[in-house]
Amino acid sequence: MEQPVNGNANVQQDIDYVKILKIVLSRWYWVASTVIISLIVAYMYLWYTPETFSTSASLKFEEKRSEISELLNVRNVYDRNNKMQSEQFVIRSRQVLLNAVEELDYKISFYLKGRVRTSDIYPQKPLDIAIIEQDSLDFATNLFEYEPINTSLFKLSYQEGGKEISKEYRKGQLISVRGIKFKINNNTFSKTNNAIYCFKFNTKSSFVGRIASGLSMAETKGTNILTLSQTDPNPYFATDILNSILRAYVDYDRNQKTISATQTIKFIDTLQQGMAKVVKSSGSQLEQFKVANKVLDISAAGQDVMKKLTDLETEKSSLNLQGIFINQLEKEIVGNKNLNAINYNLQGITDPMLANLLAQYNALLLKREQTLVDYKPTSDAVQQIDKQILEIKSAFVSNANSQRQKNQKTLDFLNQQISGIKQTFNTIPKAERELINLTSNDAINQKVYSYLSEKKLEAQISKAAITPGATIVDFALYNTRAIAPKQQKTYVSAFIIGLIAGIGLIFLIRLLNPFIYDKETIESLTNIPIIGVIRKYQDAIDEDNRQILSIKNPKSLFAESVRSVRTNLSFLAAEKASKVVCITSEISGEGKSFTTVNLASTLSLIDKKVIVIAADLRRSKLHHTFKVNNLKGLSSYLSNQTTLEEITYDTEVENLKFIPAGPVPPNPSELLYSDKMQALLELLTQSYDFVIVDSAPVGLVSDAIPLIRMADVNLFVIRSGVSRYQAASVPERLSKEFNLSNIAIILNAFDNDILHSRYYTTNYTGSYYANYYYYSDYSNTGYGSGYYNDGPDKKWWEFWKKK
User: Disulfide-capable partner of 623 in 317, 660, 717, 720 (CB 3.0 to 4.6 Å)?
Assistant: First the structure.
């Protein structure tokens, strides 16, 4: 009894940006809620987060040669030519920061206790605290809470040994806690304002972490100026400590240069003391020889030999001095257990690699000192730097050995030349030869001693004239305008986050939604045509669907949507004078029985003779709708227990008759597959215009399959908001599996919930939809502009109102 349905439409779906906007606006109150929540969170964040202040200052580095003179071209590491990167390590060094803290009155910090947080009130000192006795290393550094009781008494609360201690004291009374004794000589009691203050005792190192975390530096491009910034919750502390850092760095730089010059002078003194004895000895030997041998002058030939010999011996002495310096430098680097900077370096006469390695060594020492501000000596960061320092030491020793070997080869060559010159002595008288040797030794020693004296004098002058390598351009000024959190920026960010979160929530709900809501979704999932869209009834419906709504409310949106299905149904199997219509769905609860009743009732209103068969032999409820008993029905007839007349009932609707399902049989599928069922349908088509069969859900049992194959038209019901995406593929699978072309889809209970609607608009081409399946999905209908008596849809807030 299959009859073909007209071909599918050529469907094209395009993105509808207006619909996307409508989707967002459909849940505007979600977006409003997330925005309000975000603004509340922002308000709480601003309320609980302490403000941060910032101030800045600048340093200018001098671009000139160091005042320290060179010893054998020695240059100290602090003589930098605009090496601002390494100077930043020096400024951040622990020693500079400790020196900066020492300038402040750091020993006691005061705080004001508020309802939300306790605030630092530097530089205020509301309490006059006199420290009587204090252990320099081990003393209580926890917070003390001071609360005045009256003009002479106050309560002091603090933690000690994991316990909360609270005691009352008198003004000026001696207070003794771990490692410290002190007195509070005043009282802040006031009838109008009894503020609670807190205080704690500090060490210099207590502030290092706080300072280092807020200190930042930036180079001014193209100049030798370094800008320093300090951020802190207290604007006055930030300004004072930054200015202290500037002064401490300048002093530290000057002191380091002084240390460097002192080391240079001390080293020259060591060499010069030994050389003085040598000079005195050589001079004495020369004078004694002249007196003893009565020799005063050297011949012209002897003077020539002496000059060559003196030049070679002088060069040997320079190499020996260089060797002494390399040995001294190597000794200091290898034996530098305290990891102090080595304040002089080699240039020119030594391997350039040694100078480079020494510079790297000192840079690593500065980096290590800076890292210790934030990390412990056993941390990975410090251990990694220590490993690099060891590698630099090893490389320095290796290069020093190479330089010594090179110098030794030069010395060997000089010795060969000196030996050759001395062989010419055979032509010179013995006494003159001795005089030449003594004179040459004395001249060499005098030159070396004079050279050392000159360098020592230069170093002493340099030490007296030392100036720091940087000058303070601008001191930091007090800035009481907070840089964070910024109220306006925070609220704007919160608004944007709330807006995005609200819109994101809408699309997340859509993404997680597994249900079909509109016809565009169905059209995107299957090629089976949609015969109509039945509107969701606005009011409550009883469980058994006793209300035939299309008759009860003929001017409602719902009734009109059912009539549109009736209209389109007349175009299906149009050549048939009488049609068998099978209505099914994937699962129960999708409204196939509800659709059956209302479609049948609308057909009867146009003088069509309609009979409804309850063919769901397992769980039929249609007999409740038509108010008949179910003692006899289709199952009884198919099992030859009754006649057709006995199971055919009149209904309250004219032209509409009903056959109940009857008792549940043990073999429902076999009964529906029987020839008697097919014969029944053929018999009924002779008396009725429409035979509407309400079958079992095809996705749960196979009972509906024989009825689908016998029907002229098959209507598959998909319920908006109940049917899942896979339901749309069931009709197409049936069509392909059983070679059917008479299946159409009805979208039931459409509520125009724009939230879950597909944001594509269907563009129809071809004559199929245009000529046959014209219907309105009522998605843009409010209350029909007076055509319908339903009234507008209830708004979300109206559900909270009592009738």
Answer: 660
Single out the residue of 127, 132, 129, 128 nearest to residue 111, CA to CA: 127
Q: What pLDDT does 727 receive?
A: 92
Q: Are 629 and 623 in contact (CB under 8 A)?
A: yes
Query: How far apart, in whole angstroms, are the C-alpha atoms of residue 263 and residue 566?
Result: 109
Closest-CA residue to 538 (of 778, 252, 223): 778
**The token pair that represents 634 in the structure block:** 């289709």
Domain boundaries, given as residue ranges, for the chain: 107-201, 260-474, 520-779
3-class DSSP state for residue 619? coil
In angstroms, rounded to a whole number, what is the distance separating the alpha carbons of residues 337 and 340? Answer: 8
Architecture of domain 520-779: 3-Layer(aba) Sandwich (3.40)
Please identify which residue in the block is written with the tokens 């205080």.
199
> What pLDDT, on the 0 to 100 scale, is given for residue 551?
63
How far, in Å, CA of 491 to CA of 764, rounded? 47
Token pair of 227 as six digits? 């800008």
- Our CA angle for 633, 636, 637, nearest 5°, is 90
Q: Which of 551, 540, 558 is nearest to 789 (CA)?
A: 558
C-alpha to C-alpha distance for 304 and 307, rounded to whole angstroms: 5
Cis peptide leading into 697, omega within 30 of 0? Answer: no
90-124 confidence digits (pLDDT tens): 898 888 999 999 999 999 999 999 888 899 999 99
Closest to 535 (Cα-Cα) out of 512, 507, 562, 510? 562
Q: How many CB atoms lie within 10 A of CB 390?
A: 10
Check the CA dihedral 86-89-95-96 and report its sign.
positive
Q: How buried is 188 (Cβ within 10 angstroms: 0-12 exposed, 13-18 middle, 19+ buried)?
A: middle
- CA-to-CA distance for 207 and 108, rounded, in angstroms? 12
**Tokens 């035939």 sit at which residue?**
548
Give ∠ CA 505-507-510 in degrees, rounded to 5: 110
Residues contacting 477, CB < 8 A, separation 6+: 55, 239
pLDDT for 436 equals 64
Strand 610-614 relative to strand 656-659: parallel, antiparallel, unpaired? parallel
Q: What is the DSSP string of 246-300?
A: HHHHHHHHHHHHHHHHHHHHHHHHHHHHHHHHHHHHHHHHHHHHHHHHT-----H
pLDDT at 65: 47
Token pair 């550094």 is found at 141
Q: Decide: 411 and 315 in contact? Cβ < 8 Å.
A: no
Geometric angle at alpha carbon 265, from 262 and 270, rounded to 5°: 125
Residue 422 Ramachandran class (φ > 0 left, ψ -120 to 50 alpha, else beta): alpha
218-233 burial, b at 16+ Cβ within 10 Å, e below that, comes to ebeeeebbbebbbbbb
Three-point CA angle 620, 705, 680, nearest 5°? 70
CA 723 to chain centre: 40
Any idea what DSSP says for residue 79?
A: -
Inter-axis angle of helices 235-293 and 84-92, nearest 10 = 110
Alpha-carbon gap, residue 566 to 746, rounded angstroms = 11
Q: What pLDDT, on a 0 to 100 scale, did the predictor assign at position 432?
A: 61
Is residue 421 within 8 Å of 304, Cβ to Cβ? no
- Nearest partner of 130 among 186, 189, 207, 203, judged by Cα: 186
Residues of the chain with pLDDT under 70: 1-12, 63-83, 260-261, 279, 282-283, 285-306, 336-351, 373, 422-438, 440, 442, 444, 459, 462-466, 540-553, 762-803
Please give the sequence-ordered ranges of beta strands (E in DSSP) within 616-719, or none if there are none: 649-650, 656-659, 690-694, 713-719
Structure tokens at 294: 């009565």
For the CA atoms of 144, 149, 154, 156, the dihedral, rounded to the nearest 10 degrees, stands at: -30
| Calpha distance 632→78 (Å, rounded) | 111
State the Cα–Cα distance between residues 255 and 1, nearest whole angstrom. 110
The one-letter amino acid code at 736 reads K
Local structure of 472: helix, strand or coil: strand
